[in-house]
Amino acid sequence: MSSVVARNSRTLFPDIYNPQKQRRTSTFRKPLRQNICTGLLCAGFHRSFAQLFALLQRWEEAEAHPHKLETLQSFLARAETAERAGQYGEVYENHLCLARFFTESEDEWLKHHFFQLALQSARKLKIDSGKREAEANLHIGQIYFVKGQLELAQEHYEEFYHMTLGREWQDTSGRSHHECSCEELGRVYTLLAERLLQKQDCELSIKMLTKAYEMAKESGDSGPKGKAAYRLGLAYQSIGDHTTAKQFLGVYKDISTAREDMDNLGRAYGAIAKSLESSGKQTEAVQYLEKFAEISMSNKQDRNLEKAYTYLGSILNSRVQYDESYVYFKHAYEIACNMASVSRLQKAQVRVGTSHALSMLQAYYKHIEISRRHSIQKIIMWKEKRQDNFIEAM
């Protein structure tokens, strides 16, 4: 009887004398982060414990993400095991896996941290000619670029560029690492140039845009090269160097023509026309603007067409060709009526009204100068009726 009671009591009550069961029970009472840290220590992964503990000091929400904690524990332990064996390639891959694992916006700092660790381990690797180190610099540069820390991004992208120079390395999609480095550097140089331009530092801005253009040329892709040439042309245009501006805008025009890119071709004609007009070559400017208008019309690009007509009207107005100017301003106004922009419409109204008045004024002055009976009667008739066909009536 007593043996039966004893047997039943062991099934009903926990065995408080079994230390293994005590440990198992304590894991359910302690926080997950503590269990994971303890697990790393018990398994002898002291460096992994130190790394994880340091991260947890900054990561208050860690307890709410058990999967992330368990993933950290697993890959940190693997990385430490590989490091002990001198397998720095494996160390790099484990840190890289962790960096790519953290994809959510609130985990950006963790992504950055593990890309930094990947770079450190890649620098210890001597058997891949620096390929992994180059890739790690690319990843860190991209992190800084997203954060808007362009100078730091530039530093890592330039390191990536120099390490890929003369190499035939490719990523998993088959894209050349060096081509990628040129593209990334071009983007950084362009944004740095825009910042400098906002600070009115045109000289340094042009230097940066020149670097971006050189990177675009080196990449071998004509699309980025054309856009870089366009930006550089506009920069030279802004400081009054229209000769150099036309040189780069000409490159943009040629590339757009070769690519049959009508939108960019029209933009090129418009920009070249501006430089020609500023250089006093108004006849050539009008020819380019007419091409701009023709391309914009054929591609149904109303915004560009309105811009072309407005610019044509302005040039003809400056040449005292008020009748022709009025025609173009009227076309621009008609387009603006169908655009969802009050400011554009108001400006178009002022231009067409002013040009119409100047056009009518010419005819009015002509009849005043003639000063004959018939001319005076025409003027009086116009003043009484104020019809829009005053010019024709004259």
Automatic annotation (TrEMBL):
InterPro entries: Bac_ResReg_Asp_Phosphatase, TPR-like_helical_dom_sf, TPR_rpt. It comes from the Eukaryota. Keywords: Cytoplasm, Repeat, TPR repeat. It is found in: Cytoplasm. One of its GO terms (cellular component) is sperm flagellum. SUPFAM superfamilies: TPR-like. The keyword tRNA processing does not apply. GO terms for biological process: cilium movement. The keyword Amino-acid biosynthesis does not apply. Axonemal protein which is implicated in axonemal and/or peri-axonemal structure assembly and regulates flagellum assembly and beating and therefore sperm motility. This is Tetratricopeptide repeat protein 29. The lineage of its organism: Eukaryota, Metazoa, Chordata, Craniata, Vertebrata.
